[in-house]
Design brief:
Blueprint (H helix, E strand, L loop, with lengths): L2 H14 L2 H6 L2 H19 L6 H26 L7 H17 L4 H24 L5 H20 L9 H8 L11 H16 L2 H11 L1 H6 L4 H27 L10 H11 L11 H20 L4 H30 L3 H9 L1
Helix pairs in contact: 3-14, 4-9, 4-10, 4-12, 4-13, 4-14, 5-6, 5-7, 5-12, 6-7, 6-12, 8-12, 9-10, 13-14, 13-15
Length: about 350
């Protein structure tokens, strides 16, 4: 049986199921269900978890991951990866701190930091799309490069003097609620990325590139431009997260946001984005970020060490990847035509 025939069989099998099963019986809704289960169990069993202050700190802590997970979803859907987002956030943090320390207004410093993010993303995009290097090798290199520049700019010192208005705003709550203000800019970005990813020709091009770059080219998709843009978006949003990180902790250091890229990639893969590209949904990624954050928060309140939390998170990630592969294999087997049907199809 040809690949085209197999694909057609799978599509026909999918649409033969009721709509509610096609919508709800998905990996993304499984993650949402697991998130709800964790929240309910933690609220009932973990002392102090079901408190407004706990949710406030939870959202403040995971905000950088939520931000960067949006463009990372696009990057990984094209079949690429960006390991430099954590060090880019650190470099943006240091850039902001150095400029503020030298007397520049915070607003100007933040704009320069965002520009640095765009430049860094452009470097990644250029090396991947024009030079033709693999994104894994490129972003490992720029991870070290950006982090080295950040550490070189400040050394072991830290900048801790920032305008009180901005540091207070980064930790402020919406009036009458325990929801941090940072949720508002995140929701704005979320709407932009959902529309871009799921409802535009550019978004459809992202999926096409991830499924097959050659087929996407024959379909009229500018593969190089598409990949370049998603890397630039990743650099920009990583820099934005770095500026927030600086204000959240009132500190600009060369080691800020270390390891953030691993948290982001773990959440994106757990949320249903294929490591091979061509598949993903943003609501699954957001649910995965919240799931990892809620689980980590509950375990910390129970006195569980960070090492154990990392083991549990890694285990969840491995199970999700293996489970997705097994599910895809079973789906293909189930939708494959029987010998009798194949013979009937060939004779007709």
């Amino acid at each position: 049986m040809t690949t085209a025939t197999q694909t057609t069989s799978i599509v026909q099998f999918d649409y033969a199921r009721p709509l509610w099963r096609r919508v709800l019986a998905t990996r993304e809704f499984a993650i949402i269900g697991l998130l709800v289960l964790v929240l309910v169990v933690a609220s009932l069993t973990v002392q102090g978890f079901a408190q407004p202050l706990t949710y406030n700190y939870l959202l403040l802590d995971i905000a950088p991951v939520l931000f960067i997970a949006l463009p990372m979803t696009l990057v990984m859907t094209t079949g690429e990866i960006d390991l430099s987002v954590g060090s880019m956030a650190g470099l943006a943090s240091v850039t902001t701190g150095v400029l503020v320390q030298s007397g520049a207004p915070f607003e100007i410093a933040a704009l320069v930091a965002l520009t640095v993010g765009v430049v860094g993303g452009s470097v990644n995009g250029y090396l991947v799309t024009v030079v033709g290097l693999p994104s894994l090798a490129v972003t490992i290199g720029t991870l070290a490069l950006f982090r080295g520049i950040a550490v070189g700019m400040l050394g072991t010192t830290a900048v801790t003097e920032f305008p009180e208005f901005w540091t207070a705003l980064a930790k402020a709550k919406l009036a009458g609620t325990s929801i941090p203000w940072i949720v508002i800019p995140f929701l704005v970005l979320l709407v932009i990325f959902v529309v871009l990813y799921h409802f535009t020709p550019f978004g459809r091009g992202i999926f096409a590139v991830g499924l097959s770059s050659d087929a996407a080219k024959f379909s009229g998709v500018n593969v190089e431009r598409t990949k370049f843009i998603v890397f630039v978006l990743a650099g920009f949003v990583a820099a934005l997260a770095g500026v927030y990180y600086t204000l959240r902790y009132s500190s600009a250091r060369g080691d800020n946001a270390t390891g953030l890229e691993l948290q982001v990639i773990a959440a994106v893969v757990l949320g249903g984005v294929s490591v091979f590209g061509g598949r993903g949904k943003i609501h699954g990624v957001i649910a995965a970020v919240l799931l990892i954050g809620a689980l980590s928060s509950a375990l910390r309140l129970e006195g569980i060490s960070s090492a154990i939390i990392n083991i549990i998170t890694g285990g969840l990630l491995i199970i999700s990847v293996v489970g997705a592969s097994v599910f895809a294999w079973a789906k293909t087997r189930r939708s494959a035509p029987t010998p009798a049907r194949a013979a009937a199809a060939s004779s007709s």
